Amino acid sequence: MASQPRRGGVSLPDRRAPKNTNQDGIITKLINAPIVSRGKQAACDAVYVSKKLLRSTGKAAWIAGTTFLILVVPLIIEMDREQQLNELELQQASLLGAPPVNPTLPVPR
After folding, report:
1. What's the rounded Cα separation, in Å, for the pair 85 and 41?
2. pLDDT digits over 41-97, tens only?
3. Cα(76)–Cα(99) distance, rounded to whole angstroms?
4. Which domain of life, per UniProt (predicted)?
5. Is the pLDDT of residue 108 over 80?
6. Where are the alpha helices (DSSP H) in 1-109?
7. Residue 24 pLDDT more than 90?
8. How far from chain centre, in Å, is Cα 105?
9. How far is CA 88 from CA 46, 65, 85, in A?
10. Is the separation of the CB atoms in 101 and 107 below 8 Å?
């Protein structure tokens, strides 16, 4: 049985095997150039260092934040309470008719 011609449609040309020559293209020469490989290595190293720096910065921020919450926030709250108590004492003293006492000066006994 002989091969039948195809009916309808467009026939595409067969793919040809690439020519094997010893001459490489310009792009291939550029990709294989030593400067390009050094540039790729430098970029990889920069990404690696950036990731390490970001990770260590995140750890340092976590340590600083938790230390602030544990040590400094209660101190601020206590100082605010002390200030409110001093203001309340001054207000009560002024209502009772006593002269206002300067909290920075020592009280004579």
Report:
1. 64
2. 999 999 999 999 999 999 999 999 999 999 999 999 999 999 999 999 999 888 887
3. 30
4. Eukaryota
5. no
6. 26-31, 34-67, 73-96
7. no
8. 50
9. 60, 33, 5
10. yes
Q: Are 90 and 101 a contacting pair, CB within 8 Å? A: yes
| Boundaries of every domain in the chain | 26-96
What's the confidence (pLDDT) of residue 15? 66
> What letter does residue 13 receive in the DSSP assignment?
P
| Closest CA relative to residue 33, chosen from 99, 88, 41 | 41
User: Please, which residues have CB within 8 angstroms of residue 86's CB and are 6 or more apart in sequence?
Assistant: 103
DSSP one-letter code for 75? H
Tokens of 56: 């260590």
Indicate if the pLDDT at residue 18 is higher than 80.
no
- 45 DSSP 8-state letter: H
